[in-house]
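Hey, quick one: can you model this chain's 3D structure?
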Amino acid sequence: MLRVEGVSKSFGGVQAVDDVSFTVTDTEIHGLIGPNGAGKTTMINLISGFLRPTQGRILLEDREIQNMPPETVARSGIARTFQNLRLFRNLTVRRNIEVAESHAADASDPTLIDDAIDRFGLGPVLGLAPDALSYGHMRRLEIIRALALRPRVLLLDEPAAGMNTEETEELFRNLLWLRERHPCAILLIDHDLKFIMSASETLTVMNMGRLLASGLPQDVTKNEEVIRAYLGHGETV
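Sure thing. Here's the predicted structure for all 237 residues.
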């Protein structure tokens, strides 16, 4: 579904991403992990069109998207959330969702968003502005707004950030529901290792812009380079 092939990105003399390749297959949940500064959010920005790579290719199915602007990437089937919330503060919760839905390439499932609103518990707050919501509700709103585009690939940048254990477990269940209700690939960044190990069927690990490993979680977490750079020998996952 999504292929990153030899992608690099430099900012002046800083190499933020260095020759990274990985594949996200159809309907899988793929975790992208690594320490702070590893290049994970830069990679999400490259895939979603907010940045253009210095070299390499990014393909959605077999179509190159690395030179498309963000709005074209979104209409092509890639939707995202942001590490730092980017909601339309002057619109209600419902209008935030409707703005995205008006740009959906495929609206053949008219009950999808109403079902998601119920599942994510946003029904009682649809008439409120985002600033009136709890932090957890704002995170859920970003996910549903991205879902409203009917994506083939959903990019989630730290969706569990700031959540307690109960909220994180609920998010995990909701992502499984979402993937079943609207089959799509999910690329997931998060620093909550328990959450991302539970949710992900495949893992890619980055450090200092480089690819350390990619594969099944049980294999990746035994990789000595991954252990040294990120997990630590005392970490249990």
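One thing worth noting: The first strand starts at residue 2 and ends at 11.
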